[in-house]
Design goal:
By secondary structure, the chain is α+β, with helices and mostly antiparallel strands. It contains 18 helices and 15 strands. It has 3 domains: 296 residues, no CATH class; 143 residues, no CATH class; 42 residues, no CATH class. A hairpin with a 2-residue loop joins β11 and β12. α2 packs across α11. This is TLDc domain-containing protein. InterPro entries: TLDc_dom.
Length: 514
Amino acid sequence: MGASSSTGQKVSTEQREVETLVASTGALPMLQQTFSRLADPQSNVVPLKSLQQCFCLAYENLISEAPKMPDTFLVFLDNLSSSIVDVFFMPQKGGVSWVEFVRGYIKCCGRMSASMSLNALLKVYAATVTKAGLPLKLEFESDEVDCKINGSLLASDVYMLLWMCWTMSWDVRTSRSSKAKANLCLPDISHLVLSAVTSCTEVGSGLNVWYCDVLGLEVQLPVGKFLTWAIKTAQCLPDCLTQFVHARLQNFCAAENGCASSSSSVGELSSTKTCNSFLLTRGRAWAISLTLRSTISEEISQVCFPSTGDGTHDNLLYQSSLHGRGLNRFWSNIEGYKGPLLMLISASSGDANESSTNLRKWIVGALMQNGFQNGDLFYGSSGCLYAISPVFHVLSSTGIAFGGTMGNERIFVDEDFSRVTIRHHAVDKTYQPGSLFPDQGFLPVEALISEVEVWGFGGKGAKDVQHSYKKREELFTEQRRRVDLKTFASWEDSPEKMMMDMISDPNAVRREDR
């Protein structure tokens, strides 16, 4: 009796502890409902198969925007759900009890440091790779989330890891659109993979980032350096896993079937081709969103995961090929927008006398918090400069300015939008040091502009303010065009008539009115 009572008291205390922890996240009611639906009524535990099915990913078609895609990725996805269950919920032979269910949620979605979140993400990736029978050079010293990780990653591993995170985010964003199986659109993220490769390899490794097969790179990336890169460049990457697990458990409460697979209607995916006609592709928008922890990230994510129609260009304010080049055309489209703006510039540098194959094409960007102002002085709050293609890097602001000084700017676009000048970071005390494109050098680089885009991510409120501003400006312009004859004096009393009379007959005697 004593042992039984002691054991019962111990279980009760453990249950109260985990429930208190999960209650602080606000997820306790949702977990209680999900557990009651998943659990077997007789044993009061969740069968292993039911929990795995809750996280399953199934797609009818796979659409890849990347030049190449690993053939093993679909096999990898098939093993993801069981890996999530094994890593976090640690099921026993009979299934998952309520305490284990709540503890597993805390391990995945509870409050933890960035390093622990990344460790958990790598644990899921390693477990999935192992189940899929693929090679991996990672070793975990224990089963704890904060354990030390040894080994290295290949570029193909980074590709698979990032695509795993993208797929989970795609599932979260599109799960409400349809309950049928749908297509999965995988973006081109070679710029993000090259960012990890160049940050984790030694200087002078001889890597040519302009022309290389990213998936075929055999460069070993030490896992410690990779984690440092992820914290600095893609700080929101672990959120993909936590949001996926939370959303799947939450959606299960309202789902009619046990496995509500991720979905998106064919109409929504029609924007896949359209998206690539912009500088801000899905992959580039996603990379930028991973660097931000604010409402701007949510707005940018709408470009990555459109929910209705061809919504990828709803936030586009200006495109030089569409609206015309030049400062006047640029200003007429972005004037009055008082929200976050993302400006992208595509250019090519190289010797004009050489063949076109020697021209190097690159894309840089700048994110501003409060739009543009028409003036001669530096202004604005903190923002970021981005090296977007071929290698992705983010340079955060440390002051107030757009970069550099008057006449010596970090990025300068001429009035005709035909050329852009990129200067070395030594002239700039606003943004962090770093190259905006590979092999930039110390001298200013002048390049021919191919395209300029400006995207507004201030939401509906900023768009409404700009619309009101333009309406007001149009009203003022119309008022200035109109001539109200009633406000003018009669012709007989006008100075113009007097001058005409004097010219026609200067000797005529005129009486001066007193």
